[in-house]
Structure formats: C-alpha cells, structure tokens
Amino acid sequence: MSLVIQKYGGTSLGDANKINHAAQRIAAADGSVVAVVSAMGGTTDAILDLARNLTDAPHARELDLLLSTGEQAAAAALAMALHELGVPARSFSGRDGGIVTDGVHGSARIVSVDPARIRACVQTGHVPVVTGFQGVAADSGELTTLSRGGSDTTAVALAAALQAEACEIFTDVEGVFTADPRHVAEARKLDHLSYEDMAELAASGATVLAHSSVEYASSHRVPIHVRSSTTETAGTWVTGFHQAALLDRERLTAVGVAHQTGQLRCRLDGFDPAALTPVAAALTDPMLSVDMLDHVPGSLRFIVQAGDRDQVDEVLTDLHAAGAFTGRRWSGPVAKVSLVGRGFGGRLLQVLHTLRAHGIGVRDMTVHGRRVSITCAEHDVLTAVAHLHRTFLGRPLSEISGLMAGRSERKGR
C-alpha cells in the first residue's frame, strides 16, 4: 500500500474547524498517511512572548522544552479529531518518532531518523501524528528544537526514512509562485520546480518551504508536493525535474523573484585577503543568515538578517582578534531582492537598468549560483519586485498591494 507524509502548518491548524478539516483530508486519503504538525497558528509567538516576559535571556534547554509544547498540543488535537472520525491515530513526539539531532538547542539539525515505531504504527492501521520541529540529541538524550521551518524538515526526513512516495506540505497558499502573489497580482503558480531552484528561492525569502527541508529532500531524492489546505488545486511539485526545456520554450531567464526586508549591511575594512577562506567558512555557517558575501580589494561585504546581528558580531570579534580585518561598519536596514533562474551572466546590466530606470537605487549586487541578488531601500522593495517580474518573467507590471514594504517575515515552524 502507498504511503505519503502529510505536513500541516500552523495556519492549517489554526482552530478546531481547521483541525477537523485536516483530519477529514487524512481520512479520505487512498493509502497510508503519516501526519507531521506544526504548532497551531499563533501558539509559537505566544510561547516566546511568555518566555520573554519571564526573562531577557531564556535558558536554551528550558526554552526548547517550552516551545515543544506547541507541536505536542497540535499532534494530540489532530489525533483526537481523527479518532472522532473513526480513524485510529496516535500522536508521537519527535523523540518517540526517532528524530535524532546534533544536540544544538534552538537550532538543531537532524542527523538520523529511526522510524521503527512509526512504521509499526502504520502497519497496525493507525495514523501516526508526529510533532515537527523537535527531536532528541544523539549524545545527551535531551529534547532539542530545530531552526525555523523545522517541521518541513521533519516531514521530509520521515519521508526519506520511510521511503514514502511523496512528502505533501499543506499550507495557506496554492503552491509556489513566480513572486509573492500578495504583492504581484500576475505572479503565476509553478507546476514544477527543481530542488536547486526551490532552494535558491527559499534562501532568498520565499517562505513556502524551509531551505533546510529542500536541501534534505534533494540529498535524499524525496519528491515534495506543496498544496493548499483549503482547495484541491494541483499545487507545485519540487523534484529533480530540470527546468531547462521549460525555460527555452517560454523564453524565460528567471524562475521567480523573491524578497526579504529587515537586512543589515556589514563592511569589513582593512580585510586581509589571506583570511578569505576561513572568514567565509565562519560567516556561511548554516546557523547564521549571512548572504551576498562579496570580496573587493581591501574589504569584505555581506548582509545579514537584523535579528542575527549579535551572533554575527560574536563571530566577527574573534575574526578581528585574529587579524582578519581592522574595522567593521554596519548600516541599514535594507531589502534584498533576488532573481532565481539561469543565464544571468549576460543580463546583469539589464537588471541594473530595469531598476535604475524606475528610480530604484541599487546598493549591492552579487551573483550566486542560480541567483542574482541586489539590495535596495526597504520602501522600494515591492516596486523592484514588480519591475523585475515584468522584465524577466514576461508579464505586465503588477499592481503593488500596499505602498510600503511589509515587515521581514520569518518562516514558521
């Protein structure tokens, strides 16, 4: 019998009606289902507010235990809803589900999965409902939470371990779009995306999938199906599918445009070029949000999410002590806009011309793999996205929803 993983995010489990709807979808599935859940909508922020009202510096271990209760409540609630429909179900914590991590509190990474208990549950005709975003440390046995988007990664990891046919990610949008449809009215839903292109979009600000989940899916060849939790539209498949033929047929150079606000610029002056390799290795640690690393004679520049500045400053202090640079300058906030696709090598001037023709000042510009990224003033970000979408994705300039850029959005769990 076929087996799929179905992951439900917080917006899909926001209240009793939504939980019942998710249960009905699971009950109607043709084959076996393993469900993975995030905390109910708003729960995580409420828990974090509680912790911050108690202390300015929550103990990492205790904060992990506190945060984990959100997913545990959602898993138990969904299991109850399934029982009410006559579907036998059982909730599992990350520990019970065999999710083993590297033990880093607050931003752990999955190192292995032992799905024996989940597999046994499926074989008895039950639906396992597994908490996302958490696991057990390999060395200490402590509960640890993953980084933001960790429930997506949990679902993909279970799909790989159980050799599921696919990992279905249910969310409040109908799939992956060429731009954020809330801001670009002509943004088109993509039927297929390669792992590589989806990873670049996720790293650039597209919040529909966590970057870590796409990387895990790519390395284990797990097909991901992004679907709406409220409609029956086809959604978007993220697989090893190659976009080249599609791009040639539609004469496109870009797959999508993504953006992020709340970025800070950093410039390291008096930079020692001999230190480039160790400095780049330190700054590109997955736990940091450093991007757009650019080395020019005498300096090194990059951007980072504002909330991660303190962590980056700690790393920079050590590098400064080692003589890698003489001084640092912070500025911002700015917005990052990224075009993802192929063939940008000869189109960089067109990117700059498109933006400058509409009065948008470009502060920085880098090319990284399948992505070209620029920074601009936050109040210009939606205009930049709209014009780049029109120019490189062949659609009329969209109506921009809102006159000001929204706040930087972080992927939920």
Automatic annotation (TrEMBL):
Pfam families: AA_kinase. The keyword Oxidoreductase does not apply. Pathway: Amino-acid biosynthesis; L-lysine biosynthesis via DAP pathway; (S)-tetrahydrodipicolinate from L-aspartate: step 1/4; Amino-acid biosynthesis; L-threonine biosynthesis; L-threonine from L-aspartate: step 1/5; Amino-acid biosynthesis; L-methionine biosynthesis via de novo pathway; L-homoserine from L-aspartate: step 1/3. It is an enzyme of class 2 (transferase). Its EC number is 2.7.2.4. Coiled coil: none annotated. The keyword ATP-binding applies. Transmembrane segments: none annotated. Keywords: Amino-acid biosynthesis, ATP-binding, Diaminopimelate biosynthesis, Kinase, Lysine biosynthesis, Nucleotide-binding, Transferase. Residues 3-228 form the Aspartate/glutamate/uridylate kinase domain. ATP binds at K7, Y8, G9, G10, T171, D172, R182. One of its GO terms (biological process) is lysine biosynthetic process via diaminopimelate. Belongs to the aspartokinase family. This is Aspartokinase.
